[in-house]
Design a protein that fits this description.
Blueprint lengths: L1 E13 L17 E18 L6 E4 L2 E2 L3 H17 L4 E8 L9 H16 L6 H11 L3 H4 L4 E4 L12 E3 L6 E7 L9 H11 L3 H21 L2 H20 L10 H15 L5 E3 L6 E6 L3 H9 L6 E5 L6 E7 L2 E2 L16
Helix pairs in contact: 1-2, 1-3, 2-3, 6-7
Bound molecules: adenosine-5'-diphosphate and ligand DP6.
Ligand DP6 binds next to helix 5.
Amino acid sequence: MRAVAEARTNIALVKYWGKRGASTLNLPAVGSLSLTLEGLSTRTEVRFDGALKSDELSLNGSATTGEPLVRIGKLLDLVRAQAGIREHALVSSANNFPTAAGLASSASGFAALALAATRAAGLKLEGRALSILARRGSGSAARSVFGGLVEMHRGVREDGEDSFAEPIASDWDLRLVVAVTAKGPKDTLSTDGMRRTAETSPYFKSWVESSEPDLKAARDAIARHDLEALGEVTERSCLTMHASAMAARPAVVYMRGVTLEGYRAIQDMRRGGLPAYFTCDAGPHIKGLTTSAHANEVAKRLAEVPGVLETRVCVPGAAAEIIGEESGTNRVSFRETVSSGMPEVIE
Ligand code: ADP
Ligand code: DP6
């Protein structure tokens, strides 16, 4: 009744922002399209134990209560219901990058949790069912179940069974340059920021309407390996999403001065013939989309932007995977534990 899983985070090129309906199923208002990233990952161990009186969470080495524990408890309840078990769980999870800081820890976190918890409970879900389960924890986590380029379907059903992610087959050598611009967690979690946007922003409806054409343009660009077309849609999806959030009342502002300087630097790169395209998430970090031939130069140029603390070139990442599991008499040795063997940590 124990399993360890690893999942990578992802960056949305066509963004998800807002929920549909009043349902508790965490259904997205829009579809989205992302790239899973190698090197920014979560490792999570889940152990169901009849001796525990409640679920317990160790996050990044510290016993954690409050919002993170409540959130994982809801996902564990779904797993217990599916598996027909009642035991509480000890969850030990570590992100090798800052948590709740705009680098999508909820994506890798809930993909790793969904995989580890189902396996520890004796369930073996196929990709689509795992994606639907991960979505209940966090919308972006539905995408981190898969590697490479991934499309998340909005779906129309009230039960959410058509709201899942799927990988897009592609051998494109895309790269994502992450420029970290701040330390510490953000003020407004994504869930809260998108709720406020949906409830109060006069631009929310326009944002939702912009999504389908953007998804189509992104799919077409990927099929053609057309970086300019994919880059254009990546920038406009990001900026339209942020515009809708900034118009919320009170405003939801994730960008800082350095984020906009990064955007300008990327525009300058393009004017000089270096193909790079800007995006950012619910946080101040700058992300540059490019291809392998240009990634190091884009990283060098972003590192020169005043206020950038660190840059990292990410290659497309693998799907979520089981690192080890153990149940009853069937023991499989653990390759590594949660606390050891994590890739290099970004502070
Ligand atoms: P981020 O930009 O990092 O994704 P979000 O606001 O989307 O920020 O999500 C942050 C929340 O995700 C945390 O407050 C916590 O509830 C959850 N989370 C982050 N890392 C993990 C993890 N490894 N396991 C479980 N939940 C996690
Ligand atoms: C800006 O997936 O964190 O990163 O479903 O409420 O957990 P919840 O939201 P979350 O939102 C991600 C927002 C985003 C864009 C994206 O990843 O598509």
